[in-house]
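Budget justification note: compute hours in this period were largely spent on complex prediction jobs such as the one shown. Inputs:
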Amino acid sequence: MKELLILGAGSAGTMVANRMIRLLDLKKWHITIVDQNPVHYYQAGFLFIPFGIYNKNDVIKPRKNLIPSPIKYLQSAVELIEPNNNKVRLADNTVLTYDFLVIATGTDIYPDETPGLAENEWGKSIHTFYSHQGAAVLAEKLRGWKGGRLVVNVVENPIKCPVAPLEFIMLADWFFHKRGIRDRVELIYATPLPGAFTKPIASKMLGNLLTKKGIAVEPEFMIERVDPDANKIVSYDEREVDYDLLVSVPLNKGSEVVGKSGLGDELNYSPVNPHTFLSDLFDNIFVLGDASNAPTSKAGSVAHFAIDLFGENFIRYTEGQELLPNFDGHANCFVESGFGKGMLIDFNYTQEPLPGRYPLPGIGPFPLLEESKINHWGKLMFRWMYWNILMKGLALPLPPTMSMAGKWTV
Ligand SMILES: Cc1cc2nc3c(=O)[nH]c(=O)nc-3n(C[C@H](O)[C@H](O)[C@H](O)COP(=O)(O)OP(=O)(O)OC[C@H]3O[C@@H](n4cnc5c(N)ncnc54)[C@H](O)[C@@H]3O)c2cc1C
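Corresponding output:
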C-alpha cells in the first residue's frame, strides 16, 4: 500500500482527502489526515458573527463528520515533519510514514507579535474577528457599544481573505445605521496598502465605495505598536491613529511546525511551484491552501480551484508523468458591502478583477465589481455549498481557471 498523508483538516485538507478517495485506487492507496482541533470552522462565517447575522454555532461542525471512513483521521498536533526520512512526528510521539505528503496546515493569527496588541486591553477595547472566539466576544461588544472611533487595522500582508477587513467595516457602517447610532460612529480603515485593496481597478472601486459610506482610509499604515492605555496605534513612520474600539487583523503566519521542520520562509509559508503546488524542496511533498507561499489570495476559493486541478495531476505524477503547470492563481470572492448587498471579484495571478458578469458571460447572474443584492445572497448561500459540496470533495460546475468571457476591459 502507498501512503498519502495529509497534515491539516481545514478547508484544503478536507477537500483534498475527500477528492482523493474518489480518484485513487483504495486497494493500493491508504489516506491519513491529521488535525489538532476536533472542530472544523467555516471561517468565512466569522465575518457575520460580530453583527449577529450568524451565531457561534452556525459556523462549526465536528471534524470527524466531514471525514468518511476510508480515510484514517487522527486528532493530534503535528510536532515535526522529517522530510529527509518521509516521516511525521505527532505530539503524542506517534511516528507516521508517507510516500507522498500534503501540507495543508493553513495560516493563523499571531496577535502577540505586535507590541501592545494582545495585552491588558485585548478583548476589551481591542478585538479581532479573525478567530471564532474573537468574533463572538466582538459581537457582545458591538451589541452594547455606545459609539466613538472604530478603527480597523491590518497589521501586515498577506492575510487570509484580504477583503474580509473591508467587508467588516462596510458591515459596521450598516450595523450602526440599523442601531440608529451611525452619526455617533467614526469609521477608519488603517491599512499597510496604498489603497483599499491590492489590485488597482478593484482598489479604486472599493475606495470609492468606502468614501460614499463615509469610511476614511489611512493608507500605508505599517503598524509598529499599539498603546493600549492611550488608545492609539502607532506606525513605523510615527503616525498615530486614535481609537475607542480597535478591530485588528493581527499578523498572519503559517503553522510553526512548517518553520521548525525547515520547510518555511520567514512567515512559515512553504515555497512551492505556484502552478502545481509541488514543494520547491522535496519532490514528494505538495502544499495546498493557505500554507504555501503561492502569490495568490489566501482564500478557500483558491484552495478549491487548485484542488480541482490537483487531483488528476497528482495521479499523473504518481504514474511517472510530468505535472501539468495548469493552476493560474484563480480566486473569486464575494465582498459583502452592507445593506443586503455585495460585490464579486474574480481574478488570477496576472489578471486583476474587472467588471462583467459571472459565471455565465453576459447573463451572470452575479455582477462583477458592482454592488447587488444577488451577490449578498450568493455569499450567504455559500455556507451551504461549503459544507455540502466543497467539503465532500465534490466539484462545483465552475471552471477552475479564470475565464475572460463575460468580463469588460476598463
Ligand atoms: C474572517 C475570515 C473570512 C474569510 N472569508 C473568506 C471568504 O469569504 N472566501 C474565501 O474563499 N475564503 C475566506 N476566508 C479564508 C479561508 O477560510 C481560508 O483561506 C481557508 O480556510 C484556507 O484553508 P486551509 O485548509 O489552507 O487552512 P485552514 O482551513 O485554516 O486549515 C488549516 C488546518 O490545519 C490545522 N493545523 C495547523 N497546524 C497544525 C499542527 N501543527 N498540527 C495539526 N493540525 C494543524 C488547523 O487546526 C486547521 O484545521 C476567510 C477567513 C477568515 C479568517
